[in-house]
């Protein structure tokens, strides 16, 4: 095929013009994310393949889908010389900071909605209970509090 017209262009995570033939894997990931949001067990996914077959592109798409559902995501590469705690500690700190900022923003929005929705201000289009329900859908709370252990 003419290299100028060939849609295949390998390049570490560079998205192709179309993510063809990946609908089943993307649906499996979407099901897992929805089950997790509903606090149900979900099947793990293991994406394997030869170099240049689109694994990173697929993972990037799943990250976008997860973040659209309100999940906090992390990208980690595991060099051989770094211990697991050494790898996870900075990434978990970043994730917890993201979640903390999101919760702080949610609290500020909730306070603003309460101020706007007082009896003197009449009806508001988006009430505090509506916002709380929205938060429960997009930011599910874990069943048990996070208690990270960084012992190595």
Q: Which overall shape is indicated by the principal axes computed on the Cα atoms?
A: extended
Strand content: under 5%
Query: Based on helices, strands and strand pairing, what is the structural class?
Result: mainly alpha
Tell me the Rg in angstroms: 21 Å
| Overall mean confidence score, pLDDT | 76
Instruction: Give a count of the beta strands, DSSP E runs of length 2 or more.
Output: 0
Tally of individual domains: 2
Spans of at least 5 consecutive residues whose pLDDT stays below 50 are 119-124, 143-152
Number of separate helices:
4
End-to-end span in angstroms?
53 Å
Helix content: 40-55%
The main sheet comes to: none
Order of helices and strands: HHHH
Task: Please describe what this structure looks like.
Mean pLDDT is 76; it is low at 119-124 and 143-152. This protein folds into 2 domains: 1-71, no CATH class; 84-138, no CATH class. Helix 1 (23-37) packs parallel to helix 2. The chain has 4 helices and no strands. It has 152 residues and is mainly α. It is extended, with a radius of gyration of 21 Å.
